[in-house]
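Design request, tokens follow.
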């Protein structure tokens, strides 16, 4: 397993300079737990050298910085685009991605140190954009409370995307953070079809449980949107399926719904197509044609799905998210000196 000379993105080509290693190879502890929820899963506990990662410039992501306390994900979504990251560690991108979980045990302390640096300007930090930070491992390692506390204490704006109901454990911390900075929460629910859920997202909570999370967060005063992702061609894109999903999202009180069509990047593409050949062989040729140009479905298909979902959102009354003002830490302000006598500082 390659822990040394590991860069966050693809390894450098021959002759190019290498980035510093992400993990200390002599500080890797491998554990297994003989409990039902973790049976068959191996955890590699590492001490990371950095935790705040810059998103590559070519990325389509609408943010620049991310924090990912885990690599690999027990949600085992067959379409997960992050699968290729396991190949950088010489780990399998199929079953290995689902069962070999890298845990950055020092993530909270690293983040606090980073936020305290004079070079850090308080940019927005996104979490859950690579693998889910509220996957089952978080129930044991409890990295997110320390991460949220650090962001709260520095009034640093952040967002979380999750399929995990475990986020409700940290509800009080999220409320505290929302008092001083911008907090954005999105829950991923691409469909409410149970047969489809059981086969493509076998390690995740059921769609209705995720929508319960949306309802609970909204009732607690934290606006929560739904990323309707992925919309899966020929399996989850029938108009009746889209209608049922948007109706359920609306009933949960979501502040917004954003559709995202399935994309198949290298690593995920091979695993998903193997799954498709086993479970829906009649669709393989259709997928090869639809994704013939690369990782993304054609623009016409994406536009069609987006239009249908937006029309349904209007019909069911889902409004846009209302984002709060960021970085509301109280600051001491010293008034102009009063020549007539001493001046007392005022806390605004």
């Amino acid at each position: 397993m390659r822990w040394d000379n590991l860069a966050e993105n693809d390894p450098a080509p021959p002759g190019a300079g290498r980035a510093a290693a992400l993990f200390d190879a002599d500080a890797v502890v491998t554990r297994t737990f003989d409990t039902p929820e973790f049976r068959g899963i191996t955890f590699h506990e590492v001490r990371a050298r950095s935790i705040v990662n810059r998103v590559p410039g070519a990325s389509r992501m609408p943010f620049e910085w991310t924090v990912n306390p885990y690599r690999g994900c027990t949600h085992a979504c067959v379409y997960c685009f992050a699968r290729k990251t396991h190949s950088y560690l010489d780990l399998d991108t199929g079953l290995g991605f689902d069962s070999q979980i890298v845990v950055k045990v020092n993530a909270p302390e690293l983040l606090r140190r980073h936020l305290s640096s004079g070079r850090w300007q308080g940019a927005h930090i996104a979490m859950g954009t690579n693998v889910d930070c509220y996957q089952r491992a978080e129930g044991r390692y409890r990295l997110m409370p320390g991460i949220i506390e650090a962001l709260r204490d520095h009034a640093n704006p952040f967002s979380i995307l999750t399929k995990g109901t475990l986020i409700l454990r940290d509800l009080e911390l999220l409320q505290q953070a929302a008092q001083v900075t911008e907090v954005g929460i999105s829950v991923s629910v691409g469909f409410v079809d149970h047969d489809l859920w059981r086969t493509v997202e076998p390690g995740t909570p059921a769609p209705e449980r995720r929508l319960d999370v949306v309802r609970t967060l909204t009732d607690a005063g934290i606006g929560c949107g739904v990323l309707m992702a992925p919309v899966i061609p020929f399996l989850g894109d029938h108009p009746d399926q889209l209608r049922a999903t948007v109706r359920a999202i609306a009933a949960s009180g979501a502040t917004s719904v954003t559709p995202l069509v399935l994309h198949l990047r290298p690593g995920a593409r091979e695993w998903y197509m193997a799954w498709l050949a086993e479970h829906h062989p009649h669709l393989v040729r259709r997928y090869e044609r639809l994704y013939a140009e690369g990782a993304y479905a054609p623009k016409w298909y994406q536009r069609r799905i987006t239009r249908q979902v937006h029309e349904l959102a209007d019909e069911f009354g889902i409004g846009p998210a209302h984002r709060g003002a960021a970085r509301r830490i109280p600051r001491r302000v010293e008034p102009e000196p009063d020549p007539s006598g001493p001046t007392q500082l005022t806390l605004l």
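Comment from the thread starter after seeing the answer: thanks! DSSP finds eleven helices and 13 strands in the chain.
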